[in-house]
Write a structure and sequence with these properties.
The protein has 385 residues and is α/β, with parallel strands linked by helices. The chain has 12 helices and 14 strands. 40% of the residues lie in helices and 14% in strands.
Length: 385
């Protein structure tokens, strides 16, 4: 990459750049809202007012009552609170929990923990595009089912689940959905009948370190931390007001620009795929053609290796992801890709590209050229040329 070439970030599903207006709001909160929101004096009231305004901004994007939103430190914490809270609520009453085999690790690992504690955890497996089937869920539902936890939008494939249909066969079990990847980018899952929703700030150009759990009225989820006094007795710890304010501002921006952003993301994704075709860069689409997030696309480049591709993209000034965890310096095949039927070799040829509203069509065309060059180079190396 020449020193003049500008880097292009195509990994918005991992995290997003913080919007300048979010930074501005956070700096103001650091300077003026530094009080403890639990205090009754002027400084404390100012911090509390800022926190409650942010709660209203988040509720507006979710289409929710602000009173049902509880702040957490992340989407992962919100996921874990939802599952462990429901388990505590139904301990000794019901013993089955159903979740999906391609959920975020925050859900999968919590479900495994509950299984080790004696819960009957049932795993719903998807089809080869990552869709959970209503009839398959129905087979797992019984009178002992306390909870169903299925994500709204898959973070590696972009698959948008039909949450309403899945909820309709849940037979009264509490239904939780991880909507971290869906927040702002698609309609809120709340009108679809769900009972708990996890969201996070850093996926929509807000800061890291803050998320939220929405809880339907009538569900008395236990406190996340014993003897909690914050968040109406549900969560302990003095709130990080600047991060919460940033989350609120990010939600306000996405709400105000939701149609513009969604249309733009769709245009970016279509343009990226079309440009790769024009450049003669062959790929296999792993993400579904329909019911897929406009911000995510997973592609398989045959006769390559994802790790080498990612390093090549990075050197060419383009950031992407294999959608898999890094351990001991080596990429492992994505468990999600293996679960939808790919072999380890095939999974290791896949790359996830994800888009955000700050990208331009010029960025996309430029990045496609960089990607195509790296793919061609890797294929030549693989063929011994």
């Amino acid at each position: 990459m020449s020193v003049e070439a500008k880097r292009i970030y195509l990994d918005h599903a991992a995290t997003t750049p913080v919007h300048p207006k979010v930074v501005e709001a956070m700096v103001k909160a650091l300077e003026e809202g530094w009080g403890n929101p639990s205090s009754i004096h002027t400084e404390g009231r100012a911090a509390r007012k800022a926190k409650e305004h942010a709660r209203e901004q988040i509720a507006q994007l979710l289409g929710a009552d602000p009173a049902q939103i509880y702040f957490t430190t992340s989407g992962s914490e919100a996921d874990q609170w939802a599952l462990l809270g429901i388990a505590q609520l139904f301990k000794g009453k019901k013993n089955r929990i159903i979740t999906g085999s391609i959920e975020h690790s925050a859900v999968r690992n919590t479900a495994k923990r509950l299984a080790s504690e004696g819960w009957d955890v049932q795993w719903l497996h998807p089809d080869n595009k990552g869709f959970y089937k209503q009839e398959e869920l129905q087979k797992l539902i019984n009178s002992e089912t306390a909870c169903v936890s299925l994500m709204y939008c898959n973070n590696e494939l972009g698959t948008i689940e039909d949450i309403k249909k899945l909820y309709d066969v849940s037979n009264g079990a509490i239904f939780h959905t991880d909507a971290v990847q869906g927040l702002g980018k698609m309609p809120s899952p709340i009108p679809m009948g769900v009972d708990l929703v996890s969201v996070a700030s850093h996926k929509i150009n807000g800061p890291k370190g803050v998320g939220a759990l929405w809880v339907k009225p009538g569900i008395e989820i236990p406190p996340w931390i014993a003897e909690a006094s914050q968040e109406r007795g549900k969560h302990a710890g003095t709130e990080a007001i600047p991060a919460i304010v940033g989350f609120g501002m990010a939600c306000e921006l996405w709400y105000e620009n939701r149609e513009t952003y969604r249309n733009h993301l769709k245009e970016l994704k279509v343009s990226f795929l079309q440009e790769l075709h024009v450049l003669g860069c062959e790929f296999i689409l792993i993400s579904p053609n329909e019911s897929c997030s406009d911000s995510i696309v997973n592609l398989r480049f045959t006769n390559t290796e994802a790790e080498a591709l990612l390093l090549g993209f990075d050197l060419a000034g383009a950031a992407a992801s294999a959608g898999s965890a890094c351990a001991s310096g080596a990429l492992k095949p994505s468990s999600v890709l293996l679960e939808i039927g790919l072999s380890e070799k095939e999974a290791n040829e896949c790359v996830r590209f994800s888009f955000g509203p700050s990208l331009t069509l010029e960025n996309i065309k430029d990045s496609a050229k960089r990607v195509a060059k790296v793919v061609e180079r890797q294929r030549q190396v693989a063929s011994g040329k």
